[in-house]
Amino acid sequence: MKTIKYPAKSDWQDLILRPEREKESLLDTVKSVFNDIKISGDSALKLYTEKFDNVNLTQLKVSKEEIDDSTNKISMALQEAIVRAKNNIEKFHSSQKEHPKLIDIEPGVICWRESRPIEKVGLYIPGGTAPLFSTVLMLGIPAKLAGCKEIILCTPPDSEGDIHPAILFAAKTVGITEIYKVGGIQAIAALSLGTESIPAVYKIFGPGNQYVTAAKKYAQEFNISIDLPAGPSEVLIIADEQANPSFVAADLLSQAEHGTDSQVIFLTTDEAILEKTLKEIENQLKQLPRKEIAAKALDHSTAILFNSIDECIQFSNQYAPEHLILAIKDFVNYVNKIENAGSVFLGNYSCESAGDYASGTNHTLPTNGYARNYSGVSLDSFVKKITFQELTQEGIQNLGPTIELMAEAEELLGHKNAVSLRLK
Ligand SMILES: NC(=O)c1ccc[n+]([C@@H]2O[C@H](COP(=O)([O-])OP(=O)(O)OC[C@H]3O[C@@H](n4cnc5c(N)ncnc54)[C@H](O)[C@@H]3O)[C@@H](O)[C@H]2O)c1
Ligand SMILES: N[C@H](CO)Cc1c[nH]c[nH+]1
Ligand SMILES: [Zn+2]
Predict the structure, then answer these.
(1) Ligand 1 nearest-atom number relative to CA 155
(2) 322 included as an active-site residue
(3) What distances in angstroms separate CA 330 from CA 151, 241, 319, 348, one per listed residue?
(4) Ligand 2: distance of its center to the CA of 174 in Å?
(5) Using a 6 Å cutoff on CB, does residue 132 contact ligand 2?
(6) Which partner from 180, 321, 407, 413 sits 20 to 30 angstroms from 255, CA to CA?
(7) Where on this chain does Zn(2+) bind (predicted)?
């Protein structure tokens, strides 16, 4: 991890850069996979699965037996943990339900808005280097709460052609049964274009590596919408003198271990905390099974010493992290100053892992600076909002002349006429 002390503001622009693959070559790969899947459907899907996941599949769809068997393949304790997390995620996301509010605009003019589920949605569950069954809960629960009719789940198979039983158990717990063994660009292409076995959907959700994220961006060319660009994980931690260096190190490593292209940023005003945290990172890293992955992520991660917490917050707002942890005493005084972040964790005991698994918030969040203009996944992501209005005869009599005047000024006399006829 690189250490920088008191950087000038003019250097911040370089410090907020994320490690990225060369976009051009990524896009070329994405385009050719989409093209092959458009032409050859399932057979291209199988070829790409052999190429990128090293497994030769005969059947892409997960059978009912495989789903049912998943229960016997994971411990009772894990089953209970998944159910507890599900209840918490459900509680938080249910609270996001909006009830139509009728607004009296003027006498005889009422407007309101109602939500309707997106009928067909595709959920991508990452599985390249870790089976992220928690993501099944994060996407499946709001999809079900919203009332989406067709929910198609895609996730890469392991080298035996199997899906991790915890992914299948989580899907079963949420009530998802249409599951396909396909990952990466080819999964996103199948969900966008449809193949003999995988139906096309209207919106694609889910995080993934740079290939998946690039494919989701490209899918938009086919009029498919996407949740958000949720790429390689990241966390930014702001710590003062009362922070606990071992907690801070553990939180940084928790996101570094996701992938070699993850990035973690540590900001502090206290030089002693900086030194102790770097030592802790070194010690804790050795104990992690994914130490090679985390070490590579740390190679393009930075620890920065600043003069004040205000300066740390300003830097964080410019960086726009996926996760922000405020390991500072008076975090309540800084909440209002946070402008760009996917999800925020307050105080020494709010570890980021809580949000990843079980506290209730969603872990599918904007990365790579997209927290400047995107929100994380929520119930809203799975619905469209339709506006309604009812004008009575009194309403059009009152408002009509204003509409007529505006229509005439725009030289749209057809619009004006639709009002004038009703005023007679
Ligand atoms: N932002 C979020 O909300 C969030 C949440 C969870 C996970 N994540 C991120 O998701 C990512 C998961 O990545 P992963 O790799 O473990 O799983 P993944 O499922 O995203 O990607 C695996 C797939 O990548 C494809 N692939 C691998 N090498 C390729 C190559 N050379 N060319 C073309 N395709 C290739 C394969 O098809 C494989 O199935 C991590 O980066 C993690 O940080 C983000
Ligand atoms: N931290 C990830 C989002 O960046 C989500 C996750 C899933 N499992 C563990 N973590
Ligand atoms: Zn995580």
Answers:
(1) 19
(2) yes
(3) 43, 12, 22, 11
(4) 19
(5) yes
(6) 180
(7) 255, 258, 356, 415
Ligand nearest 253 Cα, by number? 3
Of the residues 234, 257, 322, 352, which is catalytic? 322
Q: Do domains 23-228 and 392-423 have the same CATH topology?
A: no
CA distances in angstroms from 366 to 100, 295, 372, 375, 377, listed in the order given: 28, 23, 9, 7, 9
Which tokens is 413 given? 């006399």
Q: What is the pLDDT of residues 102-112, one digit of tens each?
A: 999 999 999 99
Task: Evaluate: CB of 233 within 6 angstroms of ligand 2.
Answer: yes
Question: Nearest ligand, CA of residue 127?
Answer: 1
323 is in an annotated binding site: yes
What does the domain layout of the chain look like in residue ranges? 2-18+232-360, 23-228, 392-423
151 lines ligand 2 (CB under 6 A): no
User: Which region among 125-129, 270-274, 378-382 has the lowest average model confidence (pLDDT)?
Assistant: 125-129
Structure tokens at 379: 């119930």
CATH architecture of structural domain 392-423: Up-down Bundle (1.20)
Is 394 designated active site? no
For the whole model, what pTM was predicted? 0.95
Q: Which CATH architecture has domain 2-18+232-360?
A: 3-Layer(aba) Sandwich (3.40)
**At the fourth CATH level, which superfamily is domain 23-228?**
Nitrogenase molybdenum iron protein domain (3.40.50.1980)
